[in-house]
Write the structure tokens for this entry.
Amino acid sequence: MQEQLPLSPAEFVKIRDGFIAFLKQPAGTPIELIIPKDVLDAMALAARRGRRRQQVLDVLRGISIVAVAVGAALAVFREPMAVGVAVLLASGVTFVWAHNKSKIRFEPEIDELVTEPNVVLQRNLRALEDYKHLIANGDIICDERLPDGTVKPLSQKARAAFLADHGSLFVLSRDQSLWQCTPHRPIPMSALWVRLGGRVAPVFVTSRTLLETPDRELFDKRINWLLSHADKAGSKAKGFREAIQIIVALRRPEFEGKTFEQKKEKLRDEGTADSRMEKIHAGIYPPFNGFLRNLPMHEFP
């Protein structure tokens, strides 16, 4: 029998268990069923390579600083001055190059990790990004449990590590040597526990799932909830509100029993673009899905 996660939103769970619950998966689900081992290995390998790369760049910057000082001294105290100036310029250029390179993220993007069509994996990786952002923003409470039993809430600076390069490994890996690959400091150093507060991944609510809400009363309740949040956002939610209007139109009583193509033909005559209706019907309309990420989805009806 699988271990059950705490049902109370006020209780804490381990950070990986929290991610599994965030995805609405059964308690005890292995992380490898959420994100396959080859993808986890690719993320770990990128982190190790990124750390070695960062170490090389740090050494180059250190050498460059020393060389700048040497070049300045040569330019002032030794003739010909051109030698010192050349050393000064070369070391300065090297420092700037290494500094700029250190700003480049090394963490693989979703499209680099998903090498063949896999909707579920893409969804889970997007949910991982949402999960990290909620922790970093403090919307999901995260505590560090030290070896002596002390419980310490993560500071705002430490939470920012979740958004740094390879920050996903704080959630996915128990190997703390991989946590060290994150260039941000400070980073958590002990076991992490989170309080979800009932939150679930926004990817589980799309325009498609809204369209397929079977109960009309629940559908109306959800639409009103979404519109109330859109009104608070003002002009920033323009595309989202337009998507809601199309969703409501597709659920008109007169369309009951009609196919999507029949509905689309009617709405096309009313001036609605085919491409927009198709994306909303498929659940992949960016303005709709993007706005959902800013909403407290744990309150969604």
Remarks:
- The radius of gyration is 26 Å.
- The beta strands are 13-14, 141-145, 151-153, 191-195.
- The first helix runs from residue 15 to 22.
- Confidence is low (pLDDT under 50) at residues 1-9.
